[in-house]
Amino acid sequence: MSNKQTHTGHRGLVYEEALIFERGRDGACGVDLPEPEGVTPRLNGMARKGAIGLPGLSEPEVMRHFVRLSQKNYSIDAGFYPLGSCTMKHNPRLNEKMARLPGFADVHPLQPQSTVPGALELMSELARWLMELTGMPAVAMSPKAGAHGELCGLMAIRAALEARGEAGTRTRVLVPESAHGTNPATAAACGFTVDAIPATEDGRVDLSAFEAKLGDDVAGIMLTNPNTCGLFERDIRKIADAVHDAGGYFYCDGANFNAIVGRVKPGDLGVDAMHINLHKTFSTPHGGGGPGAGPVVLSDALAPFAPLPYVVKEGDKLRLVEDEAASDADPFGRMVAFHGQMGMFVRALSYMMSHGSDGLRQVAEDAVLNANYVLASLKDVMSASFEGPCMHEALFDDRFLKGTGVETLDFAKAMIDEGYHPMTVYFPLVVHGAMLIEPTETESKSTLDVFIGCLRELTRAAKAGETERFTNAPELTPRRRLDETAAARKPILRWTPPAPAQAAE
Known about the structure:
Elements: H1 20-23, H2 59-71, H3 93-99, H4 102-105, H5 117-134, E1 138-140, H6 146-163, E2 172-176, H7 182-189, E3 193-197, H8 207-213, E4 218-224, H9 236-245, E5 249-253, E6 273-275, E7 296-298, E8 310-314, E9 317-321, H10 342-378, E10 383-384, E11 394-397, H11 408-417, E12 424-425, E13 435-437, H12 445-463, H13 468-471, H14 484-489
């Protein structure tokens, strides 16, 4: 590897990009605005007296700065994104074309309902698809993402318990150790006590431990299926029946629905509530802080408590119910100011309609096939965490690195030098040094073959004692490895101008 230094700090056509404040200079500006004439200031002595302190750059400099930053951001459009338990798959451009249609792109949440019948029809049609695919009778469309959907489901469960007069006694929520981290956090945020359920050696819920924890103080269980080990919970019906017999409800984390969409209906498994990440299963944009959408499907037992607003059909017209007085149910309240995220709704329905029911079924089949191809191609050199096939993601642990001086984090950093965003590491917590790979259905066999070859080569290098290749990685990026602990505990959130240089004596 070359350690060649350049005068500019740039490496090839990859620029060493300074902060915009560092690039700025006094007196530069991308616009030329004349002072307004005949304007009487009305700031009552509050007008700025000194420089505002913003960076000064020309228009081309501003444009280049942000384009260069965008080029440093890895994305699914740039390459394979093997994050486990996060379903990072291609977003078809057809979806984007539909979302940019003026009637959808320009719709405003404060428009009179009479002016947006098409938007209401789209929401109703998307809801119909979601209910059909999950086998559930109702859906709340307004939650913004997965964790927000979890909150919606738990609030519906709490409302149902209050209606039964049991909210004060049913205070415990059971959560498997392999659950997504937001599950126990959501339960705690709703005022429940979290009680963890251990896993068996084959990576699934310990049924006997679960049954031992049931009691008349249990509000419900939050379970992911397929779980975060990439395995289908074989005892799912027994778990659902047992929690119902105990008077509780079954919340299913829908983050991994991509593995079973079109193949299994969660309603048939006894689920009472499940959020659906439109940005995972139905290919709306993922990440960047939003906008997101996490509709929640609900069973007959929880449907009356679905939050406002929701769409109802009256004759041949659709109407958005926005207040409790107009509702014939008992909604627990409102989670967001308006109806949800129209752009995500358009993209998701476009994806569903372009695939059809048979295509969505193939999505799950191909996702599972790709994950098992990765598992079968690597388990002879890397250590698979569990015996047998997986569902949508392949899980490895760090046993194959024992004695090499290389740890999971080092292995992940070395992947960056090879041009890959690392897979999810150190999760799920039930596996030591976990490496969780979810290829999704959108990656071709040729793409996976190159990725598999890369991991086999890195494994060879680690076992051959090429330790520095890992502990020094990444070496080919604009920035080397950071002290992530210090960065998290002592973040520098404000740019401070450097002290002026001392004049030479």
